[in-house]
Inverse folding.
């Protein structure tokens, strides 16, 4: 019973405070979309990962330069 009451109060307080809840939710959604677009066309097979790696290191360097 106490957990239910405290959870309800917490959700009411978070929904009233724009800077605490809604802005944070918006930032999380934006970060999720940005990271998702990085991995959008990677593929799920091992060969697609190798192709991506070869394209990144096209000069033959190890990437540690």
């Amino acid at each position: 019973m106490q957990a239910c009451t405290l959870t309800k109060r917490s959700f009411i307080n978070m929904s009233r405070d724009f800077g605490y809840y809604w802005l944070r939710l918006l930032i999380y959604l934006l970060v999720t979309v940005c990271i998702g677009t990085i991995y959008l066309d990677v593929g799920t097979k091992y060969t697609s990962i190798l192709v991506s790696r070869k394209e990144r290191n096209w000069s033959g360097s190890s990437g540690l330069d």
The chain has one domain: 2-55.
